[in-house]
Write a structure and sequence with these properties.
Largest sheet: 3 strands, mixed
Structural class: alpha+beta
Order of helices and strands: HHHEHEE
Strand content: 5-15%
Length: about 120
């Protein structure tokens, strides 16, 4: 949900998936929420909004994003990247036909693919 990462991530995804528009599903610490799957309401809310993006907007790919200085997931980079990997696997279980990637946004707001 952090506004600092929105534009760098959108630009990256537009190029990566050759997409004009990018749907954004925001939560505080989504990589942690989807990796742990312990907050059922939050997980179901994310999946419901993801379904709309895929079914109604014909989204071509999914990205799970973690970033430096995250208030929702204040874990260090290495642990957040592990959360991203687990979250990507969880989403792939729901949407195996859609390419799902993991992104890390560093302290300079540079985006790199990690999964």
């Amino acid at each position: 949900m952090d506004g600092r990462i929105q534009m760098p991530v959108i630009r990256y995804l537009q190029k990566r998936f050759n997409a004009e528009y990018v749907d954004v599903i925001t939560e505080a610490g989504p990589n942690l929420i989807l990796a742990r799957q312990s907050e059922n309401n939050s997980v179901e809310s994310i999946l419901r909004r993801l379904r709309v993006s895929i079914e109604n907007h014909k989204s071509l790919g999914i990205a799970i994003v973690g970033h430096h200085d995250c208030a929702g997931n204040p874990a260090p980079e290495e642990l957040q990247i592990e959360h991203i990997r687990k979250a990507v696997e969880f989403i792939k279980g729901h949407y195996p036909e859609i390419e799902t990637i993991g992104l890390w946004v560093d302290e300079n707001w540079s985006v790199k693919e990690v999964v």
